[in-house]
Automatic annotation (TrEMBL):
One of its GO terms (biological process) is DNA-templated transcription elongation. It comes from freshwater metagenome. Necessary for efficient RNA polymerase transcription elongation past template-encoded arresting sites. The arresting sites in DNA have the property of trapping a certain fraction of elongating RNA polymerases that pass through, resulting in locked ternary complexes. Cleavage of the nascent transcript by cleavage factors such as GreA or GreB allows the resumption of elongation from the new 3'terminus. GreA releases sequences of 2 to 3 nucleotides. PANTHER family: TRANSCRIPTION ELONGATION FACTOR GREA. This is Unannotated protein. SUPFAM superfamilies: FKBP-like, GreA transcript cleavage protein, N-terminal domain.
Length: 160
């Protein structure tokens, strides 16, 4: 089983970001470093240090994406009405009204919800793993730090 389970859209987005950072990104930051070197003394050259910091952050992101892409499994969408990887789910905690529903995208940290009010939930978290396979109307329970909690699935949909 692959370590990083991604939707097709996220896989494509990461491949494009990797290609961009390893080509255009590296060239741009190298140009910034070169221009900053031309300004003189490197010890007190803020432009140089900022460009080197940018380079370090970019190289870290490149390595991170590379590790995701080396060990990836593209996960197909779940059947309609079933919570799975890449599913947006609305849940309500036992005793709360449906107005208090919370919305989550179940998936990898690199998945990007298509709406601002939706948070990403790891499928390996206690609630995330309890929700996998649940259907609309189902009530699932999971162990939280303050005891066992129950949530009801109000709706599911595949993102996109």
């Amino acid at each position: 089983m692959a370590k990083h389970q991604l939707s097709q859209a996220t896989y494509e987005r990461l491949k494009a970001e990797f290609a961009d950072l390893t080509t255009r990104g590296r060239i741009e930051v190298a140009d910034k470093i070169e221009r900053a070197r031309e300004l003189g003394d490197l010890k007190e050259n803020g432009d140089y240090h900022a460009a080197k910091d940018e380079q370090g952050h970019m190289e870290g992101r490149i390595r991170q994406i590379e590790s995701f892409l080396e060990d990836v499994e593209i996960v197909p969408p779940s059947p309609e009405g079933v919570v799975g990887l890449g599913t947006i789910v609305a849940i309500v905690y036992e005793g709360d009204s449906e107005d208090a529903a919370e919305h989550y995208l179940i998936g990898h940290v690199e998945e990007k919800p298509d709406e601002d009010h939706i948070s990403v939930m790891s499928p390996s978290s206690p609630l995330g793993s309890a929700l996998l396979g649940a259907t609309v109307g189902a009530t699932v329970s999971y162990d939280a730090p303050n005891g066992k909690l129950k949530v009801t699935v109000l709706l599911t949909r595949t993102q996109g």
